[in-house]
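Q: Hi! First time doing this. I have a protein sequence and I read that you can turn it into a structure. Is that right? Here it is:
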Amino acid sequence: MHCASGDLNPLKWEKVVNFLEQFYHEYPMQECYSIPSTRFHSSRKMFELNYYVKHHIPASTVDFISGLIGRKAKNVRLYAKVWRMVEALHYFTTHGWTFHSKNLPKLWDSMCYEDQQQFNFDIRQLDWDSYLFDYVMGIKRYILKDDLNKLEDARANLARMRLIRALLTGAFWYVVVQFFGFGQKKHKKWAVWLVAFSTSHFLMNYNFRPKIPLKSLEEYKRTAYC
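A: Yes, that's right. Below is the predicted 3D structure, encoded as structure tokens:
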């Protein structure tokens, strides 16, 4: 039986985007070259700019370096596939529909308790957080071929990238302060640098979205692992 959640238990893109960012910070991918982030763009041009700056150019750079050291270049080809998938789903990810389900609750209410337990199709009982966790974890394991036993290595890699980003942010603001603060006293420039760096670091690392309770790895293995 196919059950559309519709207006009974709707799943909106805002929730999916929020979930994905928190999930990939807690359970990062093994081959991760940047810090995961998810956001919607109201402008097509801004979306394309974000894609080229954050994905296409870094992928091209990594492939170029891989070619120089004799390794296989695969990132540009991979992102080309991702881009084609994004384009194919563009209409559906930028529009919304509400499907009204009136007969399903009536059918559910007409069933006895025993039948409800045996044939549970009540979409209102579906926990989207748990469903999305199992779904995305399945992508990690069966499509991306991530080894969950190497999760700590992936987290260590993500921590290194956060450190690198912090160092680059600090270097960026140092250059800016030195350039525009030419002739200013040293302690004043350091104060401006500290405020700019601290503010940037906070905004880039703090998640202002609602916190989603994620399953632990042990709970996932106990309830859905196979």
